Each structure stands twice: as structure tokens, then as C-alpha cells.
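Whiteboard transcription, Tuesday session. T.W. wrote the C-alpha cells on the left side:
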């Protein structure tokens, strides 16, 4: 008997599609199965203001496939100089869905991020007052901190004090990557929630570095140890409301991924919900996929879940190796490209 699973339409609470040609190539892969997505603002230049977000939102809407009712949700890129009044205006106008912290130089296109945490206090206070969500690339960039410890140190140094200073503010640890992080988020829920990627559920650092350096598994936060991966699988498949889906699908051209200093990011949108289904099946938790993919995220953001549904079926297909992109970026390789996927979306 064919195995089938129908769940409410999922949302992606952490997605990069970039702009221009890459956006037009990448967005349809998410729009075909997901109801909404948080559209990461680390463009060049970044989406810093309400005006930037409104303009990017229009470009995203125009890049949807015909007939799609996919909804982009727009966070602002926090800088040392973000104006609390602009954040408030954008939120009240329904343009701004949150504010995203990139510590300066923590990841791709984060050079314009925050360098001095004292300067963002007025913005955080305003967000707390208005109920605006605070999305964080939760990594400490102090060069003295080991790259594998960046998440744990950020939680200790930044996040724990902020949760006390702003008790009414709701936080999201984006792309949670460690056991320390899992334990912390559990202990700090419901004030703190976390999105979890497909690749942090599937890969450990031996997969990345143990059999040759695989630049296509290079991502920020870096993929960690097997105990970290197991803790993340336990968290995602637990059904606990503080853990929800965020693919961090992040396309880069082949040239950028393979450069001497390679870009961080994995393009997984073409296999995202299918990969989560595989993980949940392996953990004997398919009955909890809907909570993780379609219910917990909206609840943490204070939004209703989608009414529509998607249906997955156990029937194999071969993942495309790459997508082609108009213009100089040319192509982006796909996570699991060329491999066989067991689950397929048959209705969405
Ligand atoms: C993301 C990107 O490419 O924009 N890269 C990544 O390694 N995850 C940025 C981010 O989310 O850190
Ligand atoms: Zn990301």
C-alpha cells in the first residue's frame, strides 16, 4: 500500500532567494509547496528599512509562478543605525514581519550587521512594546571564540541577558545547530523559539570534512558533531512548540561556492519538505511532521496556520543536480542533487 501523508501547508521560517535572476530561479521551488516564508534580508545592499522591504516584497510577488498565492514575509536587517520609528511604521503598515540580527561578519552578506549591541537597545525596547519578533543569527563573532562554539557563546553572552532585559520580547534562534542550543531553547520556551534546517538534521561534521572537503556542505552555523545532530533530530521530531521548520535554503553560484574563500550556504528548497519527511519517518515521528512544519512556526509568530494542505507520498524520484540561472551566476547546485528521494509531494 502506498504511504500517504496529508498535512496543513507548511511555511518556511528562514529562506534566502536573493534578488533578480537568482530570485526568479529559486523562488518557484519554495512557492510550489509552502504557504509563506520569511525572506531573509541579507541582499546586497541589505533590506534595512520599511521602504526597502516593501520594494523587495513587490519584486518577490512578481517572481511568483502564475496563480501562486505564496506570501513573502519581510524581516528588516538590523544595523547599528536602525530607526525604531521606521520599524514601528513598517510593522503597523503590515509590511514588516520581524527584525533580523546579523552580527557583523558572522555569515554571507552580514558586513552591514550589528557591531555594537548597546546601539540596538532602543530598537529592541520598541519591538518588545509592539510585539515584533526578534530573529537572530545567534553566533558570537569574537575571534577568540572557536567557530564550533559560536552558538553556545552567543546564547551565554547575548541571548540570556536579553531575555531578562526584555521579558516581553519573543526571540527566534535561527538555524539552531547544537545540543547546547537545543537544551537552552527548551528551557527558555515560549519566549524563545528556534528554526531547524534539513541539513543540520541530516549531516554531521564528518560528512562535511571526513571524506574530503565538501564545500557544498559548508554553511553557517557550521555543521557540528553527531551528538549535536541527534539532539536536533530529537527536538524537531518531538512536536514541542518551540521548534519549527526553517530551511535556510541559500543558493549561491557554483563559482562562489568553489572559490578559494567559499561562500556559506546550501540550496535545499527543491528537496526541503521531502527531506524533513524522510527524517521524521526515520525517527518514527511522521505524525509530528505537521506540528513542526505547519503549526509551531505560525504560533510562535502569532499568525494563523495555513488552511490549505499538501499531500506527500512514498514514491521515489531523482533530485535535479542544479538549477540554471540567467545572467552571470549561471547555475546553483542543489542539496542531494542526483540522489533518490523517497518522498514526493503529490498535491499542494
Ligand atoms: C546564508 C546565506 O547564504 O545567505 N548562509 C548560510 O551559510 N546559512 C546566511 C545565513 O543564514 O547565515
Ligand atoms: Zn540563512
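and on the right, the sequence the group agreed on:
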Amino acid at each position: 500500500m502506498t504511504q500517504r501523508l496529508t498535512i496543513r501547508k507548511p511555511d518556511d521560517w528562514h529562506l534566502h532567494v536573493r534578488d533578480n535572476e537568482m530570485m526568479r530561479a529559486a523562488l518557484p521551488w519554495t512557492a510550489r509547496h509552502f504557504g509563506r516564508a520569511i525572506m531573509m534580508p541579507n541582499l546586497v545592499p541589505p533590506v534595512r528599512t520599511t521602504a526597502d522591504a516593501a520594494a523587495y516584497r513587490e519584486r518577490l510577488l512578481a517572481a511568483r509562478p502564475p496563480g501562486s498565492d505564496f506570501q513573502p514575509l519581510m524581516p528588516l536587517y538590523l544595523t547599528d543605525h536602525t530607526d525604531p520609528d521606521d520599524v514601528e511604521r513598517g510593522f503597523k503598515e503590515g509590511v514588516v514581519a520581524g527584525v533580523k540580527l546579523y552580527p557583523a561578519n558572522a555569515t554571507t552578506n552580514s558586513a552591514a550587521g550589528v557591531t555594537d549591541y548597546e546601539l540596538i537597545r532602543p530598537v529592541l525596547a520598541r519591538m518588545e512594546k509592539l510585539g515584533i519578533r526578534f530573529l537572530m543569527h545567534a553566533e558570537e563573532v569574537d575571534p577568540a571564540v572557536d567557530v564550533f562554539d559560536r552558538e553556545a557563546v552567543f546564547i551565554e553572552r547575548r541571548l540570556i541577558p536579553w531575555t531578562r532585559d526584555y521579558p516581553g520580547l519573543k526571540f527566534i534562534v535561527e538555524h539552531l545547530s547544537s545540543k547546547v542550543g537545543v537544551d537552552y531553547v527548551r528551557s527558555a520556551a515560549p519566549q524563545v523559539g528556534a528554526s531547524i534546517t534539513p541539513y543540520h538534521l541530516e549531516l554531521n561534521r564528518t560528512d562535511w570534512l571526513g571524506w574530503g572537503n565538501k564545500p557544498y556542505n559548508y554553511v553557517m552555523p557550521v555543521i557540528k558533531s553527531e551528538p549535536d545532530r541527534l539532539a536536533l533530530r530529537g527536538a524537531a521530531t518531538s512536536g514541542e512548540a518551540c521548534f519549527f521548520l526553517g530551511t535556510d535554503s541559500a543558493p549561491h553560484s557554483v563559482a562562489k561556492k568553489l572559490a578559494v574563500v567559499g561562500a556559506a550556504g546550501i540550496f535545499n528548497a527543491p528537496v526541503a519538505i521531502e527531506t524533513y519527511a524522510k527524517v521524521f519517518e526515520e525517527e518514527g515521528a511522521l505524525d509530528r511532521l505537521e506540528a513542526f512544519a505547519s503549526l509551531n512556526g505560525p504560533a510562535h509568530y502569532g499568525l494563523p496556520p495555513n488552511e490549505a494542505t499538501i499531500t506527500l507520498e512514498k514514491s521515489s524520484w531523482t533530485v535535479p543536480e542544479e538549477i540554471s540561472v540567467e545572467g552571470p551566476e549561471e547555475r546553483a547546485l542543489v542539496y542531494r542533487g542526483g540522489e533518490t528521494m523517497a518522498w514526493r509531494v503529490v498535491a499542494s
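Someone added at the bottom: The chain has one domain: 11-271.
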